[in-house]
C-alpha cells in the first residue's frame, strides 16, 4: 500500500463515498484578482466563499484536487472550541482579546452547520453532540471542570455519569464524561466539495493540480507563480496549507509539526449485533493525551482514528494499534474486519492553538488547528474574509512566525512525545 501522501494514493472511505467532485481544472492562463489563496482545503475554501459573497474576486490554487489533504481525510467530527479551556484562554490573552476569541471558537460548529444549510451541502450532517469520556479518576475531574467552565458561559453542555456515557457510547470502559451538544459530524470530503461548489457559485475561481512554486511581492501586488508557468496577481494572498505546508514562505514549514492522523473503519455494522454501539449519532474523543476519536457514519460503519507514527503508512500493520484500540473499547468488534484504512496530516503547534501570521503587507497565513480543523478552519476563514474585505480586526492574536528549534529532529520530537504521553496515560 502506497503512502496516502502520494499522487496515486489509495482512496479513503470518504473518497469512495463522496460522489462526484466539482470541476476544478488546472489554471490555464495568468489572471488578475483581488485575493489569491494557496490551498483548497477547508481554510482556503471557507475564506474564498465568504470573500466572494462580499464581492471580491478570488482565485484558489491547490497542488492536488480540492480536499485531497486532511480536509477530505479527517474523522468528520465538528467540535467547537480549541484545545485550551476558557479560563486558560482568558489567563493567557486577557479579557479584551480572550472574550472575542472565545466567542469565535465557541460558535465555530454553528458556522459549519449554517453553511451546510444555507448552501444545501449534501454531506450527511448530523448534530447529535460530542462526548469526551474520562478514562481515569483524574481525567474525570478535568473534564468535569471543563464542562462547568463552558456551562458557566451558557454553552449547551452537560456532565454525564458512567451509566449515561455507557448508554450513549455502547461501552463500559469509561468512568463518566461530558457532552457538548453544539457539536456534530459530517462526511468531510463531501463537505469540502460542497464548499468548492458554493465558492464557485459565488464567483470564486478554484483550480486543482496547480502547484504554487513561488509567492512574491511586486509593488502593491502579490504574484503566485505556478508549476505550469502561469501567474496569478492579487492585492492580497493567503497561505492555507496547514499540515501540507512546504517551503513556500520562509520559516513557515518549520513552525509546525506535520503529524499523521490514522483512521480505520469497518463496513456497515449489523444492527442486531452492534446496534448498541453509539446508537444516537454522537461523536466522541476520549480524555487520553494520545486520544482516540470515534463515531458511526451515515451508513452504520464504525470509524476510529488516532495518532500514528511520523512516517507515512506503508503497510496495513501500521494501523493495527487502532484496530486493537477499537476492539478494546468494543469487544464485539473482535470478529469484524476493518475494511478501510487511511491517514492525513494535521498541523501541530507548540502551544496547541492555531496560528495567524501576517509576515508581509496583505499576506495572511492560517494554520495549526491541532486536530480540530473542520470547525475552526471554517470559522477562521469566515473571519479572515471580513478582515480582508472590510478591515475588521480578527478576534485572534496575530503572531510572528517562530520556527521550532531543531525542527529537523521532528521525528524524534514526536516519538519522544508519544512515548511520554503514553506513559502518562498508563500512569493515570
TrEMBL record:
<dbReference type="GO" id="GO:0016491">
    <property type="term" value="F:oxidoreductase activity"/>
</dbReference>
<dbReference type="Pfam" id="PF01266">
    <property type="entry name" value="DAO"/>
</dbReference>
<keyword id="KW-0560">Oxidoreductase</keyword>
<feature type="domain" description="FAD dependent oxidoreductase">
    <location>
        <begin position="34"/>
        <end position="386"/>
    </location>
</feature>
<dbReference type="InterPro" id="IPR036188">
    <property type="entry name" value="FAD/NAD-bd_sf"/>
</dbReference>
<protein>
    <submittedName>
        <fullName>FAD dependent oxidoreductase family protein 10</fullName>
    </submittedName>
</protein>
<dbReference type="GO" id="GO:0005737">
    <property type="term" value="C:cytoplasm"/>
</dbReference>
<dbReference type="InterPro" id="IPR006076">
    <property type="entry name" value="FAD-dep_OxRdtase"/>
</dbReference>
Amino acid at each position: 500500500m502506497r503512502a496516502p501522501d502520494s499522487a496515486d494514493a489509495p482512496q479513503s472511505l470518504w473518497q469512495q463515498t463522496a460522489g462526484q467532485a466539482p470541476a476544478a481544472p488546472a489554471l490555464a492562463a495568468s489572471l488578475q484578482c483581488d485575493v489569491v489563496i494557496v490551498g483548497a482545503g477547508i481554510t482556503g475554501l471557507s475564506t474564498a466563499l465568504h470573500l466572494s459573497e462580499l464581492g471580491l474576486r478570488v482565485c484558489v490554487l491547490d497542488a492536488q484536487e480540492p480536499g485531497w489533504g486532511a480536509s477530505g481525510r479527517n474523522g468528520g467530527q465538528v467540535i467547537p472550541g480549541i484545545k485550551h479551556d476558557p479560563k486558560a484562554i482568558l489567563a493567557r490573552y486577557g479579557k479584551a482579546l480572550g472574550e472575542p476569541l472565545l466567542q469565535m471558537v465557541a460558535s465555530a460548529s454553528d458556522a459549519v452547520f449554517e453553511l451546510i444549510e444555507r448552501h444545501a451541502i449534501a454531506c450527511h450532517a448530523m448534530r447529535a453532540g460530542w462526548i469526551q469520556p474520562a478514562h481515569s479518576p483524574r481525567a474525570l475531574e478535568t473534564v468535569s471542570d471543563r464542562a462547568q467552565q463552558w456551562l458557566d458561559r451558557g454553552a449547551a453542555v452537560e456532565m454525564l455519569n458512567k451509566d449515561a456515557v455507557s448508554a450513549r457510547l455502547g461501552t463500559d470502559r469509561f468512568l463518566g464524561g461530558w457532552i457538548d451538544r453544539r457539536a456534530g459530524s459530517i462526511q468531510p470530503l463531501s463537505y469540502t466539495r460542497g464548499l468548492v461548489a458554493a465558492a464557485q457559485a459565488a464567483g470564486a475561481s478554484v483550480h486543482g493540480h496547480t502547484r504554487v512554486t513561488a509567492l512574491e511581492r511586486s509593488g502593491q501586488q502579490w504574484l503566485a507563480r505556478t508549476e505550469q508557468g502561469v501567474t496569478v496577481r492579487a492585492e492580497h494572498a493567503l497561505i492555507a496549507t496547514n499540515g501540507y505546508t512546504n517551503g513556500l514562505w520562509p520559516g513557515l514549514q518549520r513552525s509546525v509539526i506535520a503529524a499523521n492522523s490514522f483512521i480505520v473503519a469497518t463496513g456497515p455494522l449489523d444492527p442486531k449485533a452492534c446496534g448498541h454501539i453509539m446508537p444516537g449519532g454522537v461523536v466522541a474523543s476520549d480524555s487520553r493525551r494520545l486520544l482516540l476519536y470515534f463515531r458511526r457514519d451515515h451508513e452504520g460503519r464504525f470509524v476510529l482514528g488516532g495518532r500514528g507514527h511520523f512516517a507515512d503508512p506503508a503497510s496495513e500493520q501500521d494501523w493495527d494499534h487502532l484496530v486493537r484500540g477499537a476492539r478494546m473499547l468494543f469487544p464485539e468488534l473482535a470478529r469484524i474486519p476493518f475494511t478501510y484504512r487511511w491517514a492525513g496530516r494535521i498541523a501541530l503547534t507548540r502551544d496547541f492553538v492555531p496560528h495567524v501570521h501576517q509576515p508581509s503587507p496583505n499576506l495572511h497565513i492560517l494554520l495549526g488547528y491541532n486536530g480540530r480543523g473542520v470547525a475552526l478552519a471554517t470559522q477562521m476563514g469566515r473571519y479572515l474574509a471580513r478582515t480582508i474585505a472590510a478591515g475588521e480586526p480578527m478576534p485572534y492574536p496575530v503572531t510572528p512566525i517562530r520556527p521550532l528549534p531543531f525542527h529537523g529532529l521532528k521525528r524524534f520530537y514526536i516519538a519522544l512525545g508519544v512515548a511520554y504521553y503514553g506513559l502518562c496515560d498508563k500512569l493515570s
